[in-house]
Each structure stands twice: as structure tokens, then as C-alpha cells.
């Protein structure tokens, strides 16, 4: 017989490459690159280290053009951060909404190494009236959904200046102690801990200090949500990840034996706070128990948890739910907020399993 | 640490339930129900054995209404048959097309037990001019895609009379020796070996002998393809599965070590013939080797195969392809035929893997 299965990724979209982890294969605190989800907007550019340059410009005293080597020679910092795609768990929305039908695996937790963005901004000397920092990647194309731009555009996102200046925001060149893989932004990407993955621009080639809020495609049309001003709907860019937990095992629609101890396993993460509690229900929310953490609370990293479930004696379909809380007292909602459209799916997700003799 | 992973299913659509197997978890000749894909068109009906009745009517001498018990008392037959969803592997189509984005797992091979449809037709006595047998399920609703019918319709498909009278076509009540699960058609479903899964109508409650070709929604609009008559495009219903092989391991985008023996594993199946050969390429089709079968050739069942691949010394991205041949000399094509729309994706599918030190 063939050997037992290896880790791999599930295709949600073939081109551009959009792949997710089978979360039931996750065990470790740090997600190996082999299991880390890939969310590309266009074909992955093939950048060469020898030719690579990172330009820092806009409202700065001293524009910079940094080679890969000069970046590597600057003081580095290492941060563990969970990245989650803003559309992760979209397949749980009923009725279904457009976009890649991510299940649970568009999330991962890795150790990132690079130069703090703040150090580059410091070196370039940003003007006093700068409000945002725009990060632009080398990946280009025409987006799939209207309003379509007049031609190909580069993937770009902005950060509010106060977040851009936090020391945890990195211009990273390593993931888990190794060079980035091409699909993860080789040779250089941004890492914006606490924000959805869309902020961590891959194949980063340009950093621009701007004096007015950036109104790019992925800031307004895509990766946005509806807020209200004086009762009128207005678009806002997605940014911070809210509190969320996921059950990694059992897998959705898994068959588990009756009357046995099953170790339920998952992880929880949040934005600018720490995960403090995970409650688990094995009866569709009627009763809740507290899960046990496997990792200490650490801002920006996920926190794995476990619970020994004595499975029912009565065969049937059971629904498991996990609900996390963070140090700001924020708890996962019971339902998805329709103003968030096809994003921010952080409500307690129903994991239906079959209990069988 | 939590226990190692169990089998389960990947959500492609939450409601109606559309789930596929992670094919890298497949080992056995018979696919357990836990790993068998689910393709539902509407919510699964909750049928009770005590109230269940199967009506046989239309152009027959003696209409029948059979209880579950009376079906079970008739002589039974057991058949091993692979069922594959006609849209399986759709996620490999570039650019993407509408419909559930199945990868490789909307296929399974099981042992089905039931009463031959031919025995019921014999008992009812079909008229001499009957041309098709319509199978209708208890699942009802309004389909997602136009042309929308005026109201809710039941899922129904027809079979040409000559196929319906073949002894392998079953009115089945068991899968792998156990009662059908609800999502697989409990208590009774059709099994049409050699045809795509759409023919094996679940929650079967009505069999109708008809004198003209059935023009239902899933016969014309959906599960159809474009043929030509005198140069003019005409719709035809999908039916027989063509020859196809799939690589189950390595999984797509799996990372495998350099310079080691890796046991490539997969399965091949076909419609009204037997699989006779599987060729494997590990260099994107430049060279081919012959795989070794693990199962004998058996009409309607899949045939597992394996190949010991010595992985390259040179790290990089490699593309694996498998190409099967059947006893009629039919070989998988290199590309998908656009006349087949979003169905019949049986070309040699590229399995891209990363070879790493």
C-alpha cells in the first residue's frame, strides 16, 4: 500500500493561485510553508534578488532605493503573526456569496523576519502631514470584479501611519527562518500583524508616504465594508482581524465513534489584543465548556487549544461550535454581519460531525 | 498533542450540501461512506422507511407501489461501481467556470446492493414503444441557474431503455454492506454503473416508463453538452463517464523531498469498458512510464494504481500527469473540450508539486 498522506493544499482557485490548508493536518504552533495558505490576486511575479529594489518615496525628505542586500544588512526583527484571509470561511455563508469559497484553511501562523517598516520610514524622513503609507507589490493585472480600472494595476494597500510606525510591522524576507517561497512574496513582503492578510503585501517593491487617504481598488471596492456616517452608508477599508476561533479537528462532516474520548483541537486569534478564553459547545450552542490552551497568550500569534470530548452514546449528527474572547472583552458573534459583505466571517462556525457506532 | 487526523470531507458548497473527499486520504478499493463525496441539489429529504413507497408507472401494463420491505424481499444483486460527479475537477479549468469548484475528490468507488431495475420493469410490464425510463427523487426545489422552472421541481433524470434494462443498474438500499446514509439517498437510490453520478438518482420514489425522450431540467439545461447535427449545435444529456485517471498522492501543491522514492498513487475508471493502462509523467508530459495496477480490471469499478517515483535531485516545481487507456482504445485527452462546458473534465490533470531539499 502507498505511504500515509503528506501535507498539501486544497485548490479554491487554480489561476490566480488560491489554495488553503486542510486544517485537520495542523498540529504545530508555527505553520510550515507547505501548509500555509496562498492567496494570490494575479500570477506570482518572478523577482530576482540581483535586480530587486525597494523604493521608498512620496512625501519623504530622502527617497530611498534599497537593494535586497542592503535590506538584509539592516537590523532585523522577528515576529510571530497569524495571517488570515479576510474571506476565510466564506463557504459557511448561506446563501453563498461570490469569491473563492474558503472553508477553514485560509489562516496560518508563522515566524516572520525582516526590517521594521518604521526604520525605513525613519531613514526616509516622512513629512509631518503624512497620514498613510501605501505598500505596492510587483503583481499586476486587471481585477475580476467591477469597477474595473482602465488597465492593469498593481496590488496595493495602505496602512494608517500609526500602525505603519509600530515596530511589529515588518518588511520581511524570511518565513519560519527560511527564505520566502515565491507564492509567499519572494524575496520581500510586508507583514502587518493583527490585520487581515490583504495588508501584508507580497513581492513588495514600493513604499509611498501619502498626505491623503489612499483610494485604491483594494482599499475601496474590494476588501472594504459598509459603515455609516449620519445614517448614510460609506465604504471603509478592512484592517484589523476581529476575535476568531476555529475547530481544526474534528474536520467538518467527519465521522467519529460513539462514547469515546475525542480530542477536539483548534486555534484562536485576534487583532490588537490577546486571546483569553475559548468556549466549546458540542450540542449546537446549548451548553458550553472551557477549552484548554496549548500556547501562552501572545499578541498577533494564534493560540492553539484543545478539549477532551466524550462523544455521545447516541449516534447522530452533532454540531460543534467554538467561541473565543479577547483581552478587550470582545467575543465572537453568533452570526455574520451582512454589512461586512463577503468578508470578516468570524462568527462561531458550525462544525457538523456524524457520531456512529 | 491531539491525535492524528481522521477522514472527513471538504466543503465546496454548504447548502445544498456539496462535499468532496481529500483524495490523499484514500487507500482502499472500496471508499468508505465517511470519505465518499456528497453532491446534493436540494436539501436531503428525511424519508421514513415505514412510509416509503416506490411507484413504478407510465407506459406499463401494471403500475406498482412497492414498500421498502417488499423491495428488500426481492432477489438482490451487488455491484461495485465508481461514481463520479460530472463536474469533478472543475477547479482545474482556466479561466474558471460557474458551479461548485470540485478538485479531485468528487469520485468514489463503493459496493452497492439492491434490486435490478430490470426486475421492476419486468414486473410492471413496459409497453413495446417505451424509449426511456425516468427516475425521480424526493428532493425538490428551484434550481440555481436559468431557465428557471415555474415552481419547485423534483430532481429527475432518464435512462435510455437499453441501459435501464442492463442487470447492473440497481435500485439500491445498501452501500458497502450498510444502509445508505441520508446524504447518499436513504432509504433507496438508483445506481447506474458507468454513468456520471447524476444518473444515480437519490431518495428515489418514482420510476416512469415514457414513450418520448424526457426533456427535464437536468436532461437539457443542466448536465447537458453541445453536440452538432448538420452543423447546428444541439443539446444532449450527459451519460457515460469517459476514461479518466487521477493522481491521489502526491496531493496538489504537496512538498516532497529530493532524491527519494515516493509512491505515487491513484485510480482510474471508465464507462462501458475496462481500464487497461495508466501512464504517468513526472516531467509535465515529456516522458511517460507505466504504472502498476493494484486491482484487477473490473467493469464499472475503479482500478487503483501506483508508481515508485525517484524524486529529482534538483529542487523545483514539477508537474505530474496520469493518462489512462481503456479496452476500447480510448485515451484521456490532453485538454478539455469546450463543447462540454463545465462538465466531463477528464483530460490529464496537472498535479504540481514542490520538490525541496
Q: Please indicate the count of domains of chain A.
A: 2
Mean pLDDT reading of chain A: 96
Biggest sheet strand line-up of chain A: 5-4-13-8-9
> Could you state the CATH homologous superfamily of the largest domain in chain A?
Oxidoreductase, molybdopterin-binding domain
- Which fold name is given in CATH as the topology of the largest domain in chain A? Sulfite Oxidase, Chain A, domain 2
CATH architectural category of the largest domain in chain A = Alpha-Beta Complex
Distance N to C terminus of chain A? 27 Å
**Helix and strand string of chain A, N-terminal first?**
EEEEEHEEHEEHEEEEHEEEEEEEEEEE
* Derived structural class of chain A: mainly beta
- Low-confidence spans of chain A: 1-5
The beta-strand count of chain A equals: 24
Biggest interface, CB < 8 A: A-B, 45 and 45 residues
- Largest sheet features of chain A: 5 strands, mixed
Number of helices of chain A: 4
CATH C-level of the largest domain in chain A: Alpha Beta
Name the overall outline of chain A: globular
Amino acid at each position: 500500500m502507498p505511504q500515509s498522506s503528506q501535507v498539501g493544499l486544497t485548490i479554491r482557485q487554480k489561476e490566480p493561485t488560491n489554495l488553503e490548508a486542510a486544517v485537520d493536518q495542523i498540529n504545530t504552533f508555527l505553520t510550515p510553508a507547505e501548509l500555509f495558505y496562498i492567496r494570490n490576486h494575479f500570477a506570482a511575479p518572478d523577482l530576482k534578488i540581483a535586480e530587486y529594489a525597494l523604493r521608498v518615496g512620496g512625501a519623504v525628505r530622502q527617497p530611498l532605493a534599497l537593494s535586497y542586500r542592503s535590506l538584509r544588512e539592516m537590523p532585523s526583527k522577528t515576529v510571530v503573526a497569524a495571517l488570515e484571509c479576510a474571506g476565510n470561511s466564506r463557504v459557511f455563508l448561506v446563501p453563498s456569496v461570490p469569491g473563492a469559497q474558503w472553508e477553514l484553511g485560509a489562516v496560518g501562523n508563522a515566524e516572520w523576519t525582516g526590517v521594521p517598516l518604521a526604520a525605513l520610514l525613519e531613514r526616509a524622513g516622512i513629512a509631518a502631514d503624512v497620514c498613510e503609507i501605501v505598500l505596492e507589490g510587483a503583481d499586476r493585472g486587471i481585477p475580476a470584479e467591477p469597477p474595473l480600472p482602465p488597465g492593469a494595476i498593481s496590488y496595493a494597500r495602505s496602512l494608517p501611519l500609526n500602525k505603519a510606525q509600530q515596530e511589529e510591522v515588518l518588511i520581511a524576507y524570511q518565513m519560519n527562518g527560511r527564505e520566502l517561497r515565491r507564492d509567499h512574496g519572494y524575496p520581500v513582503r510586508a507583514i502587518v500583524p493583527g490585520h487581515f492578510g490583504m495588508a501584508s503585501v507580497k513581492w513588495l517593491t514600493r513604499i509611498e508616504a501619502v498626505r491623503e487617504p489612499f483610494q485604491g481598488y483594494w482599499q475601496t471596492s474590494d476588501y472594504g465594508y459598509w459603515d455609516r456616517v449620519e445614517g448614510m452608508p460609506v465604504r471603509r477599508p478592512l484592517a484589523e482581524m476581529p476575535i476568531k476561533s476555529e475547530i481544526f479537528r474534528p474536520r467538518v462532516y467527519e465521522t467519529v465513534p460513539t462514547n469515546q474520548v475525542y480530542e477536539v483541537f483548534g486555534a484562536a486569534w485576534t487583532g490588537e489584543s490577546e486571546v483569553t478564553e475559548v468556549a466549546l459547545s458540542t450540542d449546537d450552542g446549548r451548553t458550553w465548556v472551557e477549552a484548554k490552551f496549548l500556547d501562552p497568550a501572545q499578541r498577533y500569534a494564534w493560540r492553539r487549544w484543545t478539549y477532551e470530548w466524550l462523544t455521545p452514546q447516541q449516534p447522530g449528527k452533532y454540531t460543534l461550535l467554538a467561541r473565543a474572547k479577547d483581552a478587550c472583552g470582545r467575543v465572537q458573534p453568533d452570526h455574520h454581519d451582512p454589512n461586512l459583505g463577503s468578508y470578516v466571517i468570524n462568527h462561531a462556525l458550525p462544525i457538523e460531525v456524524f457520531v456512529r457506532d
